[in-house]
Amino acid sequence: MSTYPTTPSQTVGPYLHIGLPWPDGPFAVDEGTPGAVWIRGTVRDGAGELVADALVETWQADPDGRFDHPDDPRGARSYPGFRAFGRCPTDGEGSYGILTLKPGAVPGPDGDQAPHIDVSVFARGMLHRVVTRLYFPEEEAANAADPVLASVEDPEARATLVAGTAPDGYRFDIRLQGEGETVFFDI
Q1: Which domains does the chain have, with CATH numbers?
Q2: What is the DSSP string of the chain?
Q3: What is the mean pLDDT of residues 105-123?
Q4: How confident is residue 7, by pLDDT bands cut at 50, 70 and 90?
Q5: pTM for the whole structure
């Protein structure tokens, strides 16, 4: 019997481009759904270089602030074709896009949370995904009262969580490290 050395820990690696994307992944709703908006952006590394092999994943409440999940006793309302989940690999320019519906405010233990989308990023060189949130720029009052957003004390850091507007929806660029790094949360 021969002995083999232990395999070293691996980063996310190229597997995410092989096994995680699927054709409907970028579509949390079907194209043509009334009220659908695009969330588009880029992923950059610590040196500011575009990351051409990352994967961006989103999960969110419906427009009424309800989740289709057993932990939400209110249950989701019916929005035909709304999957509440999107997954898009970045392209050669580090860009991604997810078509979805804007979520509603979500009740929380410390008061309502502003409409937001939970965002995870997987990329080479990372042992675990990083998790952040996207907030909407037109929700100023809700954003000011949101307990999670308020927990980020530095105004410049907090600004990395608020999307910009775009002609067909919103722009949310993600910086994994370095100057202008997006705020990520320990979960």
Answers
A1: 15-175 (2.60.130.10)
A2: ----PPPPP--STTHHHHHS--TTTTBSS-TT-TTEEEEEEEEE-TTS-B-TT-EEEEEE--TTS--SSTT-TT-----TT--SEEEEE--TTSEEEEEEE----B--BTBPBPSEEEEEEE-TT-SS-EEEEEE-TT-HHHHHH-HHHHT---HHHHHTTBPEEETTEEE--EE-SSTTPPP----
A3: 92
A4: very low
A5: 0.88
